[in-house]
Amino acid sequence: MEDNMNNYSDETHEVLSHPPKTIVLWGNTILFVFIFLIILLSWYIKYPDIIQSNIIITTQIPPEKLIAKTTGRIEHIFVKNRSFIPKNTPIAIIESTAKYQDICALKRLIESIDVSKNDIKFPIEETSTLLLGSVETSYTNFEKNYLAYAVNQTLQPHLIDKQAQNFELIQQESRLKLLLEQKDLVNKEIEYKKIELERHKKLFDKRVIPAQEWETKNLEYLQQQKNAKDLDSQITIIRSSLNDLNKNKKTTLLGESKDLLILKRDLILSLNQLKKSILDWELNHVIQNSIDGSITFLQIWEENQNITLGDYAFVVIPENNNLIGKVKATALNSGKIKEGQVVNIRLENYPDREFGIIEGQVRSTSLIPDHENNLLVDIDLPKGLYTTYNKKLPFQQEMSGTANIVTEDLRLIERILYRFRDLLKR
C-alpha cells in the first residue's frame, strides 16, 4: 500500500492523506439525508394487518329457495316466472287425493269459528261434498265432536232435571212455609192451653171442679205439645229434603258444566288437530313463499309435469333490499376484528385488476363462534357494488369472493419497532 502511495505525486499524496473537510461534510450530509428519507418513508408507508376470509354478498333478507316436500304431478301453477308475489302466495299445487279448492273452502269455514263464544257454530251442512284426502280423518273426528256439542246445546239433557228440581224446591218451600205458620198457631194454642190448665188447677185445688175435668184439660195441653213436636219433626224433614234438593241441583249444574266443558274441550282439540292436518297438507302439497319478492323458476316447470321430493323448484328474491356481506372468519386472530374496520372485497367473477375492489365496513360480529369454530361477521357496503374504479357491478344473489379485513393499518416504522421490542423481550 505504501509503495502504491509513493508512486503518486506529492500533491496527490497530500490529498489522500488529508481529505478536504468539505468532502467529509457532504458525505455525512448525504448519509444523514438518506437515513432521514428512509425513516420518513417508513413513517408514511403503511403496512396493513389483514384477516383474509371468504365472503358471500347477498341481501339483508336472503332469497328464499322453495323445494318440493313430496313427489307427484304438478296440478296447477298459479304464478308466472319473474313476477312479483306477496308473501304466503300459493305458487304451485302437487297432486294429492284431496281437492285444493275443497281444502281452501274448509279452511275458510274453520277460520270463521270463534271458540271464545258460549255457543260455537259451524255450517256442517256445507262440508258434505268436500274431497279432503289425508285431512278426512281429522275432519271426521272434528265433525263427531261438533255434533255431540251441538246436540248437547240443542237438547240440553240436564234441563229436565233442573226444571224438576226447581219445581220440587218450590213445592217443598211452600210446605215449609205452611208448617211454620201452623207451628206459630200451635205455639199460641199451647200458651192459651197452659193458662187454661193453670186456671183449672187452681179450681181443682179448691175442689171446685172434679178430677176428671182437670185430667181432661191436662190431656188437651199434652196433646197440643205433641202436635207441636209433630210439626217440628215435619219441618225438620222438609228442611232436610230442601238441603238434599239444593245439593242435587248443584250436582246437576256441576254435571252440566262438566259435560259442556268436556264437549267443548274435545271440540277445540279436534279443531286444532284439523287445522294442523290442513297445515301439514299445505306444507306437503302447496308450494308457497314466506317473503315478498320476485319469483324465479329454477327449472322449466309446466302443469302435469312430475316433480320429485327435494327438487329445488323456485326461488323468491326480495326487492328493494340492502346488500350485506356474510363472512366466516377463522378463530385465529378473530379477536382483532372490530366494528367499523375497512374491508376490501374481491369478487371471483370480476377480476380486481379490471374492475377494482369493493369497499365495505365491519357492521357486527357474532358473540361466539359457530360449530366449525368460525366467527360470523356482517359487512356493510356503504357504496353498494361500486368499485374503486367507479364501476357498478350488476347484483346477483350470493356473489362469492375474498374479503380482506384491515384490522390494523400500522406504519412501517411501527412494525420495525414492534420487531425490536419482541427481540428485546426475548
TrEMBL record:
Query: Topology in the membrane?
Result: Single-pass membrane protein
Membrane-crossing segments per the record: 23-45
The cellular component terms of Gene Ontology attached to this UniProt record, alphabetical and capped at eight, are: membrane
- List the residue ranges forming a coiled coil, or say none: none
| Superkingdom classification of source | Bacteria
- What are the record keywords, sorted? Membrane, Transmembrane, Transmembrane helix
Q: Residues of the signal sequence?
A: none
UniProt subcellular location: Membrane
Task: State what protein this is by name.
Answer: HlyD family efflux transporter periplasmic adaptor subunit
Which organism is this protein's natural source? Myroides odoratimimus CIP 101113
